[in-house]
Design goal:
The complex is a heterodimer of chains A (253) and B (296). Chain A has ten helices and ten strands. Chain A is α/β, with parallel strands linked by helices and 253 residues long. In chain A, strand 9 and strand 10 form a beta hairpin. Chain B is mainly α. Chain B has a two-stranded antiparallel ribbon with strand order 1-2. In chain B, strand 1 and strand 2 form a beta hairpin. Chain B is globular and about 75 Å long. Classes of the chains: A alpha/beta (253), B mainly alpha (296).
Chain lengths: 253, 296
């Protein structure tokens, strides 16, 4: 795999005050691939994900060591503009969290904070994003209604559209289907297949089947360490480590 | 088993009775207020009472027009709101969103302590410190006027507005804040585009309760508003808001005289005003809960 590297973590340590949540994590992500992060609760996979768009900055007392680069530029470098990083690295959260605004305004939000004023350009981008997240046909007649009236699955696809509207390069997904029913989950998974053609996707999931279905590569975390990473097929058929095998076969976790 | 059941029943009855007492007493006060206030309308029509511009209750024949008192109450409430709302809301935003935990730990109790200041102390301050200051700086006839009363009332409503708004802002789900920041919004954009709109119903409730407090407050306006029953023409006119009028005259009004009934009728009007404020606050707070209607 001699492709260019989109995100590279090298010896990344992460502390919540005194607690070491990530230890010596080195992991590369490639463009136009979906990488799944799996592991039992508390293994550090979500913490790692939230390092990439510096969402952990909001928690007081956290500390990062090592390096984490986006296109070779250190995300935690002294001159880095966090806002700029977050515009390039979008995020979809575990629980659908649409703003209490209209469907249109939800999707347009990222553009508006970016200075987007031209109504026509906004409309175009909103439609494009909603089509990308496969929600357009369901909401095109009620763009001016509250997003809170949508179902959970629709809300989550709206959140994906909202993240896509700013045209990020990387999309982080933190258990995006864990609050959804099987049908909504299936829609999200189909969507990921489409989206990875255009973006770099990193998805945290508790579901082994989901990791197997949507990802090209899988990384297994345990107790704050990266145990194993490789092609999803390889990881699920020939895991090199005993812990990985125990986890994916359901013997613990 | 039976004993425990009995105890449970007794406790429930006890709570019911105490709850009933407070509701009953309030209800009786209401009945009394209306029974003592309405007789004045045998002498004066409702229209002349409310829109009459002359308040000479002890003249012969007396004039019972309370428009100057209503205007004074509305004016002090409006001017004090103009001061208190920006102060209270920005303080709330600062405390909930910007202040470090240490600053918050210092500021929040201080603001809440302001609420504990007895109104007579604030009135006293307005009378002996602020009134002479106004008099000197602006070369007025009196320092006891609409502006002075409004500023003192603003002091009193800032803690109410601030602490309720702060609760509302603080309880905006962290998920919304994260969603906004993750889209590349700055902290300031997140505050004014997401957090404040999401807390708007709580903030409106806070503002209305603060205004309701200013409207009903008696001691401060009695001490510093000046007491002249004129429709105010400027910020520096002395005024006589409704509560001040009742407090000042009640002791002198003969029992069951026309004047006495008129003062109670002022109480009814005042009650209707604050009641209206509270209905508004309730309505806005309730609207917030409906899913799907929170379109901003």
């Amino acid at each position: 795999m001699k492709e260019q590297i989109k995100i590279r973590a090298k010896n990344l340590n992460f502390y919540y005050t005194d607690f070491l949540a990530l230890s010596e994590v080195s992991l590369d992500f490639f463009p136009h691939q979906a990488t799944a992060l799996i592991g039992p609760s508390g293994c550090g996979k979500s913490t790692f994900l939230r390092c990439i768009n510096r969402m952990n900055d909001l928690i007081p007392g956290v500390r990062v060591e090592g390096s984490l680069c986006l296109d070779g530029q250190d995300i935690y470098g002294p001159k880095v503009d966090v806002v700029e990083i977050r515009r390039r690295v979008g995020m979809v959260f575990q629980k659908p969290n649409p703003f209490p605004k209209t469907i249109f305004e939800n999707v347009a939000y990222g553009l508006r904070v970016n200075g987007g004023r031209d109504r026509e350009a906004l409309s175009r981008r909103v439609e494009e994003s909603l089509r990308l997240s496969a929600l357009w046909d369901e909401v095109k007649d009620r763009l001016d209604q509250s997003a809170l009236g949508l179902s959970g699955g629709q809300q989550q696809r709206l959140c994906i559209a909202r993240a896509l509207a700013v045209r990020p390069e990387v999309l982080l997904m933190d258990e995006p289907a864990s609050a959804l029913d099987p049908i909504a989950t299936q829609k999200i998974e189909e969507l990921i297949h489409e989206l990875k053609k255009r973006f770099t996707i990193i998805i945290v999931t508790h579901s082994m089947q989901q990791a197997a279905r949507v990802s090209d590569r899988t990384a297994f975390f345990y107790m704050g360490r990266l145990i194993e990473v490789g092609n999803t097929e390889t990881i699920f058929t020939y895991p090199r480590h005993k812990q990985t095998e125990d986890y994916i076969t359901g013997r613990f976790g | 088993m039976n004993k425990r059941f009995l105890k449970e029943k007794l406790i429930r009855a006890g709570f019911f009775v105490t709850a009933l007492v407070s509701v009953l007493v309030l209800g009786m006060i209401m009945v009394f207020l209306f029974s003592q206030g309405l007789p004045i309308f045998d002498q004066v029509s409702v229209g002349r009472f409310i829109f009459g511009t002359q308040w000479y209750p002890t003249a012969e024949p007396p004039d019972f027009g309370i428009l100057p008192l209503i205007a004074a109450s509305v004016a002090v409430t409006a001017v004090s709101s103009l001061i208190a709302i920006p102060l209270g809301v920005t303080t709330a935003v600062y405390l909930a969103e910007i202040a470090s935990p240490r600053m918050r730990g210092f500021f929040k109790p201080v603001v809440e302590m302001l609420a504990a200041l007895p109104s007579v102390v604030i009135g006293f301050f307005g009378m002996v410190v602020f009134a002479p200051f106004l008099l000197e700086q602006l070369d007025l006839l009196t320092g006891l006027n609409l502006l002075n009363a409004s500023i003192m009332l603003a002091f009193m409503s800032v803690p109410t507005i601030c602490s309720i708004s702060e609760d509302a802002i603080y309880s905006v789900p962290a998920e919304l804040k994260e969603a906004s920041l993750a889209l590349g919004a700055t902290h300031w954009q997140t505050i004014y585009r997401v957090i404040v709109p999401a807390a708007l119903s709580g903030i409106s409730t806070a503002v209305i309760l603060g205004m309701s407090r200013a409207m009903g407050e008696t001691m401060v306006v009695l001490m510093v508003a000046g007491g002249a029953s004129l429709i105010p023409g400027s910020l520096f006119d002395p005024v006589r808001p409704m509560p001040a009028s009742i407090a000042a005259e009640m002791a002198e009004a003969p029992f069951h005289s026309e004047h006495y009934y008129a003062l109670f009728a002022i109480g009814v009007v005042l009650f209707l005003f604050t009641f209206l404020f509270n209905i508004c606050a309730d309505y806005i707070a309730g609207r917030h809960k409906q899913v799907g209607a929170a379109t901003l």
